[in-house]
Design goal:
heterodimer; A: Alpha-Beta Plaits; Rossmann fold; 19 strands; globular; B: alpha+beta; v583 fold; 3 domains; 4-stranded antiparallel sheet
């Protein structure tokens, strides 16, 4: 059936009416619709599409009409009513931002540009970074797949000009208290952090904030900087700047153990600065640093505690315990272990932060003997198919490793793959403890806990239905000031039944404690 | 050291790649810019190599100098409407059996539906064929000389068919003395330029020749030439961009001509009919803005090393461009794209012909889509908002040599329009010129089915770039 509405002497712009016609045709039951002014052209169109009836005769160019062909009268009436709604709809303007297409155009818009964050595909990243160096702009190179040769050239060129190249594969920096890429809202303070690891830097800076202190600068170097091929060019550069920086009173170095000769150079430079210095070479030999009078840390958490202690003029002591106290931790672990069914004995650690995964494995390997992983500490513990296959005994996975990120965003942005694995793991009768990180801050998913909490609740329910008890331990890496909020994130996880520990190291230690209580 | 200087300065960040990093910074009110980064030439290695060659210091200096000369010529152009004539009398090289068409060269066999319809209609109108069947046979016979309008100092909207007996507007570039020609606009609906070729179309075209033409010719002769540069400058302040929106331009022209028409010693009814015809067709001015742009751009052709585009046009099969420094005979053509836009009720993309017409001469000269910011009403065709219209224009500054002086855009604080499309900048940024355009039905005889936005295929530019790289030597 065809239905019309005619409004004499009402003018509407023709383009908006064409848009309306299109919208009306999408309505249920509507096969043809025409909204327009009664011009000759529009009436001809009405004829052509079979909407013309006698009612339209005599209308003119100043008359507005809506014609609808629909299956039922009600649908036609609804469509005409919808036209009225759409006509009166106020378009809320989302001011479209204008993005310049080139670096030089950006410079012409803001001559003070002094830091470039580059996350373009690796094949193009080095050229772009060099263009920035040429224009005296410091670089944070988030992109990976930059060759070692390219990295070395970039860093040499930058160092010659006193510029910083953080990266490649550098995810975290806080410069002048501005968090760049994946970084937390950490209060301003006197601890300068030089880090070759992204989530490692996030963990130490967040814990420093939680301990009530703050960071002066947090510079990243990229994971390869302390290898022999690069020679620690940027770590040395960052150290030199921190040495000169009056706002920095304590220096904290975070890295995997560097090449031997590079480590010697870095430690010597750190010693000469004369400022208290904490060295956190995860899994490295603490004796090297201590021989030079520097403070060595045994975990990221320990590094944060020691840096804060030095800042406060206290003597740093190893932190290997639990914030809740040893007794409370033992009681908690015993309670969890007591609920386990026969055969439940393994820890499964599923991480979105690579360094957090690495740290946990280093803390637990001496007790567990083998930890199977996609980034194993012992070559023999390499899982053949980490993504598709099943877990094996104690299994720890880094979901940010290449195998998991092909064709999809990093798990800190999209943690769904990890959540899926948490659910799946609940079906394994040998699984006793699930251990997960949850990294918040800028760059991360707007609410990573929601997804993880749902998966944990589901996993616990699955295990419970099978007569088992699954211990789920989480640690949130972040601060109160982060957009997601530390407390809110912790509460979300707790309400799903997770045990939330204050640091990655404590979470790992509690997992171990539970396995020990199972016996 | 430099790094400590950074610690003492306010951080100003430029972000490439993941856009979220930029939004995180701007939400914290950190001074930041995001670059809409694309690999050079879209990752095309051969094009990147050609670009590097042309950007070598020795060649680059010559090219920039040539482009500045082109820019100077475009800005100094003074197009004026000087009269009307009959195509066969005034267009150079026009014969009784010549058919001019829009776009780059194309054979009858490759012509799209609407162009075929317009050609057949033109042959019937000229009395060369009695009916469509005879017209089709004649068109395929090889006895008709097909040529692009652009090769004969002319331009034509949509199919752009010009035959010997058609009246044409004559525009002269007063600075350089060159002329450009364009037929009179027939209005919307069933018209020859969209390939309609029935009796209704012929009746109108005959009336335009017999009644409208003498009225306009006499009126213009009485009034004297009309300065089009000023008129285009004005219409840009009135919501037109002189390609897809010509309401203001047509009104301004009407105001110029109406008193002269009324004063003519011609039959009253003819004058009334002529005025009504002009008044009822919003696109009357399109066929004047086009030759004004054509007359503006042709003088840049003889500049060696010039990489500014002198022509962009389409024949519904191919999109073709010409580059000033490569000469008038060097066409770089690739398959024309489909227009993204809004369709009239009853039609969809399945009905659309490919991009068609010489009207993209307006964008070549820096108006039309390049002045979308001046005509935000247009952006609704692609579902956009006013801010999008501004951004279409802003992005065109990235690929042009300079900014206009006469043509200014109110919404951009009266910034001059983007002028002189530089082939090298198109390749470097990957930004293709934006063109506002009508959409023709793919079959002849139906007419216009919508309007929207289209861009030239990148291949035209990479071909032209290769020719520059091969032909330009330091």
């Amino acid at each position: 059936m065809i239905k019309h509405q005619i409004k004499k002497n009402s003018y509407f712009d023709s383009v908006s009416l064409m848009i309306l016609s299109r919208e009306l045709k999408k309505l249920p039951g509507v096969s043809e619709a025409l909204v327009g002014m009664g011009t000759e052209l529009n009436l001809e169109i009405a004829h052509n599409v079979g909407l013309f009836t006698e009612e339209l005769t005599g209308i003119g160019a100043n008359d507005f009409f809506v014609s609808v062909q629909a299956e039922t009268e009600a649908q036609a009436t609804a469509a005409i009513a919808e036209a009225e709604v759409l006509l009166n709809k106020k378009n809320e303007s989302k001011a479209a931002l204008y993005f310049p297409p080139t670096l030089d155009k950006a410079i012409s818009l803001d001559a003070k540009l002094n830091m470039a964050v580059i996350s373009v595909p690796g094949a193009h990243a080095a050229d772009l970074a060099q263009s920035c160096i040429d224009r005296n702009i410091h670089v944070m190179l988030f992109s990976d797949n930059v060759t070692v040769e390219e990295e070395r050239t970039l860093k040499e060129n930058a160092a010659a000009k006193g510029l910083m190249v953080m990266g490649p594969d550098c995810g975290t920096a806080i410069v002048n208290h501005v968090p760049l890429a994946f970084a937390n809202v950490v209060r301003a303070g006197a601890i300068g952090v030089c880090a070759a690891s992204g989530t490692g830097a996030q963990e130490v800076s967040s814990l420093i904030d939680q301990l009530g202190e703050g960071v002066s600068q947090l510079l990243g170097t990229g994971g390869r900087d302390l290898k022999k091929e690069i020679g620690g060019i940027m770590m040395k550069q960052a150290l030199a700047a921190m040495a000169e920086d009056e706002a920095t009173r304590v220096i904290l170095l975070v890295s995997k153990p560097p090449a031997k000769e590079i480590a010697a150079q870095i430690l010597a430079q750190a010693k000469d600065i004369g400022k208290p210095c904490v060295v956190c070479f995860l899994g490295g030999d603490r004796a090297d640093a201590e021989a030079l009078g520097l403070t060595a840390a045994i975990s990221l958490e320990d590094a944060a505690h020691k840096a804060v202690a030095l800042l406060c003029g206290e003597t740093p002591a190893d932190f290997t315990g639990f914030a809740m106290g040893e007794d409370a931790a033992n009681a908690l672990a015993a309670r969890e272990a007591a609920q386990m069914a026969q055969g439940q004995r393994y820890v499964r650690g599923f991480y979105t932060g690579g360094t957090l995964c690495d740290e946990s494995m280093k803390l637990l390997l001496p007790s567990l003997g083998h930890i199977y992983s996609n980034i194993p500490l012992q070559a023999a513990d390499k899982l053949a198919d980490a993504k598709g296959g099943e877990s094996r005994e104690h299994t720890f996975l880094d979901f940010g490793d290449d195998e998991f990120t092909v064709g999809r965003p990093h798990p800190m942005i999209d943690p769904s793959l990890r959540a899926e694995r948490v659910r799946r793991e609940a079906n394994d009768p040998a699984c006793a403890v699930l251990l997960c990180d949850c990294v918040i801050g800028y760059g991360s998913h707007p609410d990573p806990a929601a997804d993880l909490a749902e998966a944990i609740a589901a996993a616990k329910a699955t295990a419970s239905a099978a007569g088992r008890h699954l211990a789920c331990i989480c640690a949130v890496c972040g601060t109160e000031g982060d957009p997601q909020s530390l407390t809110r994130t912790q509460k979300t996880l707790e309400s799903a039944g997770a045990i939330v520990m204050p640091s990655n190291a404590q979470a790992a230690r509690l997992a171990l404690l539970i396995t020990e209580k199972i016996g | 050291m430099e790094l400590n200087g950074l610690f003492q300065s306010e951080l100003h960040v430029v972000n490439f790649g993941i856009e979220a990093f930029y939004h995180d910074l701007s939400s914290q009110r950190v001074p930041a810019l995001h670059v809409d980064w694309k690999p050079v030439a879209g990752g095309d290695q051969a094009a990147a190599k050609n670009l590097r060659k042309l950007q070598s210091p020795a060649l680059s200096a010559k090219i920039q100098e040539a482009n500045q000369e082109a820019y100077r010529r475009i800005l100094s152009a003074q197009p004026a409407l000087v009269g009307l004539g009959i195509a066969g009398d005034v267009i150079p090289g026009m014969t009784k059996t010549t058919i001019l068409h829009a776009g780059p060269p194309v054979t009858w066999a490759r012509m799209c539906g609407p162009m075929r319809g317009a050609v057949m209609g033109g042959l019937i109108l000229e009395g060369l064929a009695a009916d469509l069947q005879a017209a089709e046979t004649l068109a395929a016979s090889g006895q008709i000389s097909f040529a692009p309008c652009h090769m004969h100092d002319a331009v034509g909207p949509m199919a752009g068919v010009v035959t010997a007996s058609m009246p044409v507007w004559i525009v002269e570039n007063k600075t350089f003395g060159n002329r450009a020609y364009c037929t009179l606009n027939e209005g919307l609906g069933k018209v020859l330029r969209f390939g309609a070729c029935d009796e209704e179309v012929f009746t109108r075209l005959r009336w335009m020749r017999a009644v409208l033409y003498p009225v306009l010719q006499a009126a213009l002769a009485q009034k004297g030439e009309i300065d089009l540069k000023t008129m285009i400058a004005q219409l840009l302040q009135m919501g037109d961009e002189a390609h897809n929106r010509n309401k203001a331009g047509t009104s301004l022209l009407f105001r110029e001509l109406a008193p002269a028409i009324c004063a003519l010693p011609l039959p009253e009814q003819d004058k009334v009919d002529a005025l009504n015809f002009l008044n009822n067709n919003d696109h009357t001015f399109l066929n004047i803005s086009m030759p004004a742009c054509k007359a503006t751009m042709d003088p840049i052709f003889d500049i060696p090393y010039c990489t500014v585009l002198a022509t962009m046009c389409r024949n519904g099969t191919d999109f073709g461009i010409r580059v000033a420094g490569l000469g008038k005979n060097a066409w770089f053509a690739a398959t024309a794209e489909h227009v993204q836009g809004l369709y009239f009720p009853g039609y969809s993309e399945a009905d659309a012909a490919r991009d068609l017409g010489d009207s993209s001469i307006t964008e070549t000269a820096g108006i039309g889509g390049f002045c979308m910011a001046a005509a935000p009403a247009i952006v609704q065709f692609v579902g956009g908002q006013v801010a999008d219209a501004l951004n279409y224009t802003r992005s065109m500054y990235e690929i042009t040599v300079g900014e206009g002086q006469a043509f200014r855009i109110p919404a951009l604080d009266f910034r001059g329009n983007p002028v002189g499309i530089d082939l090298l900048k198109v390749i470097e940024t990957g930004i293709r010129p934006v063109i506002n355009t009508g959409i023709a039905h793919k079959d002849y005889g139906v007419g216009q089915v919508g309007a929207g936005i289209v861009r030239p295929p990148m291949e035209c530019f990479t071909q032209a770039l290769a020719a520059c790289a091969a032909g330009f030597h330091p």
